[in-house]
């Protein structure tokens, strides 16, 4: 991301813009290697392949803010790997992980995670340290770092179905696990920020599992932990929350966590999302990422984006897809977002 792009994103996030909405997309390894025609293992393991891939993306889509920009990630494997989960790598898709916590009763015995030594975390930190000067020399910055949220990591460790049953059957143990995964998220974000350097002024927290909760369960099992993450970072930092599951039950409460931006699903209309949040969040979305982004035409993407802009007048909005960029989204559909903004 160029410095001026970050300033534009930050103004929109803090709802201090003049009503013009920037275009930003969450991009990572589910999309980048396939789009560029390189192998996932090369992207993850070869620093030069990673650097050149990200450089090509920011240059090829120079009018679009790629967020969080120069993201060092291995699919969704980093946090589970630090807990000892078995990670499964393939040459042509992001890795997966197997649950490592066989019993929720063991949640209280987990050792603290050290990002400098545990799992894949040290490799990612090394990538930031060794590449940050090259990134700066090329005219770009690393403005934000990212982590999976506490419920997402807990569900990786237990399995999604098991974790949801734990919430009902063993709530006290679930709180112990969530306290631990929250500590891990904070430590991981801080370690990345230190490694990436002083251009970091934001965080991205991704946690779709929160969207599986009722409004009541959200208040008990999600809200306090999400708020603790936001509170761990300076108030002037930009704090972005991604959840493209069902956010409707807790939208009114979400601004109280401290997040500035919500990247949410296309299944919830932007007008309803704005009404439920009371205008207290900048909304990042919400063109359908698959039906429009991957399968639709550029004209369809452009029309959908223009409809979102008309509903919001560009205020309190970062134009994007309703989630991250999905594998297979073509160049013309991404550029259609910028074209819609130019026509607005």
Give an overview of the whole structure.
There is one protein chain. With 344 residues, this protein is an alpha/beta fold. The chain has one domain (3-343): TIM Barrel. It is 45% helix and 12% strand. The protein has helices spanning 3-13, 32-36, 40-45, 47-60, 78-82, 121-137, 150-158, 160-169, 171-196, 215-221, 223-231, 270-277, 298-312, 331-343, and strands at residues 24-26, 65-67, 87-88, 96-97, 144-148, 202-206, 238-243, 261-264, 282-287, 317-321. The strands form three sheets. The chain has a six-stranded parallel β-sheet with strand order 5-6-7-8-9-10, sandwiched between helices. Strand 9, helix 13 and strand 10 form a beta-alpha-beta unit.
What's the rounded overall pLDDT mean?
Answer: 97
H/E topology pattern: HEHHHEHEEHEHHHEHHEEHEHEH
Q: Span from first to last CA?
A: 24 Å
Estimated radius of gyration: 19 Å
Q: So what's the CATH class?
A: Alpha Beta
Question: Could you say which structural class the secondary elements and strand pairing correspond to?
Answer: alpha/beta
User: What's the helix count?
Assistant: 14
Low-confidence stretches: none
In CATH terms, what is the architecture? Alpha-Beta Barrel
Q: Shape from CA axes?
A: globular
Strand percentage, roughly?
5-15%
The main sheet orders its strands as 5-6-7-8-9-10
Annotated CATH topology: TIM Barrel
Number of domains: 1
Helicity level, as a percent range? 40-55%
Largest sheet: 6 strands, parallel
